[in-house]
């Protein structure tokens, strides 16, 4: 079974710079109407954590989801 991941965005810390959106290989992230990062395709996330690593404001966290067997 493939691992699943959750992408959590702290909207108070996000300044909408778009670095995480640009680096994501699976296009999981987009800017919302308030110009803040939003995870729109979390099922596509492969857990590479590039978004988490590039965020200058530490607003992005990637966690492995618990899957029910």
UniProtKB/TrEMBL annotation:
<keyword id="KW-0411">Iron-sulfur</keyword>
<dbReference type="InterPro" id="IPR017896">
    <property type="entry name" value="4Fe4S_Fe-S-bd"/>
</dbReference>
<protein>
    <submittedName>
        <fullName>4Fe-4S ferredoxin iron-sulfur binding domain protein</fullName>
    </submittedName>
</protein>
<dbReference type="InterPro" id="IPR017900">
    <property type="entry name" value="4Fe4S_Fe_S_CS"/>
</dbReference>
<dbReference type="Pfam" id="PF12838">
    <property type="entry name" value="Fer4_7"/>
</dbReference>
<feature type="domain" description="4Fe-4S ferredoxin-type">
    <location>
        <begin position="36"/>
        <end position="65"/>
    </location>
</feature>
<dbReference type="GO" id="GO:0046872">
    <property type="term" value="F:metal ion binding"/>
</dbReference>
<keyword id="KW-0408">Iron</keyword>
<keyword id="KW-0479">Metal-binding</keyword>
<dbReference type="GO" id="GO:0051536">
    <property type="term" value="F:iron-sulfur cluster binding"/>
</dbReference>
<feature type="domain" description="4Fe-4S ferredoxin-type">
    <location>
        <begin position="5"/>
        <end position="34"/>
    </location>
</feature>
